[in-house]
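Worked example 2:
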Amino acid sequence: MKTITPLISMAISLSLVCGTVAQAQSAADAPRVLVRVWQAEAPLAGGLVSPTLELDYGAFRWIEVSADEAARLAAVGADVQIVTDPYVLTLGEQRFDPLAGVPAPPRELSYACIDGPDLRLVQFRGPTQPEWLDRLEGGGLRIVQYVHPFTYIVWGPRDALQVVAADETVYTFSIHAVAWDEEPAVADLDVALGPGIGDAAYHAALDEHLPRAFAEARPDLVFYVAGVDVALEDLVGNWRLSGDGIAARDRKVMERARDLPLVWTL
């Protein structure tokens, strides 16, 4: 989640947030749509689209795809719900997509209280999940009213909004054997496979979860902790990865992050 820009009325500022990192959309970007995909249709959809965002709601998923990809799903008769212009807000006489930019405020309404408590708008990247609202309230923001789509008017200081936003700028994905502590660190995507894992089981898990991690995070920067205690010959770890298996792991991560700044540590 990141603050985008001040908004127009009632001293309201706008943020775009969710369980993923939100990115401003450039004019060159293709239009995006949200598609609700029932879990039974997920394998079919997965073969036709490359989501830039994927949110799991149990019985179904919301995915963000291009308009062309959504049309492709509709053409094959997939049982999906397609929502065009999913983030467009209508406030008074103003209608805009906050990912593409917000209109300038009327002069008489441009006196937002920058640092003190005030009304602010927070927009999520999909249908609201309870933990997202808990995060807002836990950060010191009081929810006042819902605004369609996926948006809430909240009351609080700007720094509280920024603190909540800071929690969303880091997405953590971990594949490991077991947690190191009785109270393990919180990860956005945490996969514990247990001891004795070899190449086949590890790469099956990596192939399943790595695309999801990049789709949900939409990262601007990647930190890759390329541990070698997974090696068969390692005296401390309890996994059984071969040298070829470790090299293949690294290639898959590098391929996913090929257009991004990458910090690689051991």
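The two ends are 28 Å apart (CA to CA). Residues 131 and 225 are 28 Å apart (CA to CA).
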